[in-house]
Design brief:
InterPro entries: MFS, MFS_dom, MFS_trans_sf. The chain has 425 residues and is mainly alpha-helical. It has 19 helices and no strands. It has one domain (2-201, 210-420): MFS general substrate transporter like domains (Growth Hormone, Chain: A, Up-down Bundle), CATH 1.20.1250.20.
Length: 425
């Protein structure tokens, strides 16, 4: 009987909450990564080289880091429904500002504003999901939510190529049309969110009394297991577990974001047209989308977090190192598929591992701190990627920092696993 109530409750939660959250993150990542296609024409037209492009792209994550933890704490105070809506509307308006870019300086400023506006959305949603879904279901649910990332690159590749072809219409460049039309959906969805989401399970009427009781008891039991007092921002940032988890996620986050931005240039470097580049750019993300859901579901069934996180990090690192010795389009595409499939697979298990390691009482500041610290590394890698590529002319050399970071993350995951085992002994 209880198993049937559990299945029914999780199904209702998934149907009611996930679609709008997935759509929101899909739009967020399209707005974040569309610069990768825009720069194919925007860069030459405005004189933005690889180093300047990498610096501006890195500033996005600097702003993201500065505003992320305060944003998550504000969500705890004002409620997820209104705060997530505020974030969506803000980043939509910041995305529109990209239309006014005129050179490297205004490009960097616009990217900084977009990062500040989007800060808090991802950790806010992870926190929100932890307040609705019990631990046993969390890896699969987070994987379903984060499938927005590879899916955004599939949708964004075709959409960006189409919008770039509008070059000259009404006196606007193709890249201006791209930023203009891809920013509006965030504003529209932000207006709708307060009418779709609820802050807490006890506020909704679409759960029956027995479903609400089961969910409340399950979440309350997890909070009791966590123990302790609610963690302050400073206490959480000083927590060694947060820094360990941030190092683990840094390589994965940097790989996702660097390839979302730079992969179109890597592919086009083989002399392909815009549409050929767009079509091939979709391939690794299509493969990653399906495998990500499977891997998160598998991790939940086995109740495992360490192996499903460490293994993909090792595979990602190996594929990144191999980019140094490949010079053909076929081999490059094969490695891009492998590294992105592995890299996205670990995200569901990793965030389940993080929320379980920190406990419910430290989750608000802890999840935001992990994501913020990881994105600080992402900022540096994005900037370094541009500099290394401009000086060496090699994308393989520029990818080396990612290979090292993901390898370090794999090692830290295994150490964390040993620590968890020792703590249970």
């Amino acid at each position: 009987m209880m198993e049937e109530i559990e299945r029914r409750t999780i199904r209702k939660l998934s149907v009611r909450l996930l679609p709008v959250l997935i759509l929101g993150y899909l739009i967020a990542f399209i707005d974040r990564s569309n610069i990768g296609f825009a720069t194919l024409t925007m860069g030459p037209q405005l004189g933005i080289g690889s180093a300047a492009f990498g610096f501006g792209s890195g500033l996005f994550f600097v702003a993201y880091v500065l505003f992320e933890v305060p944003s998550n704490l504000a969500q705890e105070r004002f409620g997820a429904r209104l705060w997530i809506a505020r974030i969506m509307i803000s980043w939509g308006l910041a995305g529109l500002a990209m239309v006014a870019v005129r050179g490297p300086v205004s490009f960097s400023l616009a990217r900084f504003l977009l990062g500040a506006a989007e800060a808090g959305f991802f950790p806010g949603v992870i926190l929100y999901l932890s307040q609705w879904f019990p631990r046993a279901h969390r890896s699969r649910i987070v994987a379903l939510f984060m499938v927005s990332i590879p899916l955004s690159n599939v949708v964004g590749s075709a959409l960006s190529a189409m919008l770039l072809s509008l070059d000259g219409m009404l006196g606007l460049r193709g890249w201006q049309w791209l930023f203009l039309l891809e920013s509006v959906p965030a504003i529209v969805l932000g207006v709708l969110v307060p009418f779709v989401l609820a802050d807490r399970p006890e506020q909704v009427r679409w759960l029956s009394a027995d479903e609400r009781a089961w969910l409340g008891n399950a979440l309350l039991a997890e909070q009791a297991d966590a123990g302790g007092s609610h963690g302050s921002a400073w206490k959480v940032i000083a927590d060694r577990r947060v820094w360990a988890l941030a190092l683990i996620y840094c390589g994965s986050s940097a790989t996702s974001n660097v390839l979302s931005v730079w992969q179109p240039q890597i592919i086009q470097s083989f002399g392909l047209t815009l549409w050929q580049t767009a079509c091939l750019n979709m391939v690794p993300f299509v493969a990653a989308t399906g495998f990500m859901i499977f891997w998160g579901h598998r991790a939940d069934i086995r109740g495992s977090r360490i192996g499903p996180t460490a293994g993909p990090l090792m595979v990602t690192s190996a594929a990144l190192f191999l980019m140094l010795v490949t010079s053909s389009l076929v081999a490059t595409m094969g490695l891009l598929v492998v590294m992105l499939v592995a890299n996205y697979a670990l995200k569901g298990p990793f965030w389940a591992l993080s929320s379980e390691t920190l406990g419910a009482r430290d989750a608000a500041a802890g999840i935001a701190a992990i994501n913020a610290l990881a994105h600080l590394g992402t900022s540096g890698v994005n900037t370094l990627f541009g500099v290394l590529h401009e000086r060496s002319g090699s994308f393989g050399v520029a990818l080396l920092p990612l290979a090292i970071l993901t390898l370090a993350g794999c090692g830290m995951t295994l150490l964390l696993g040993q620590s968890r085992l020792a703590g249970r002994a």
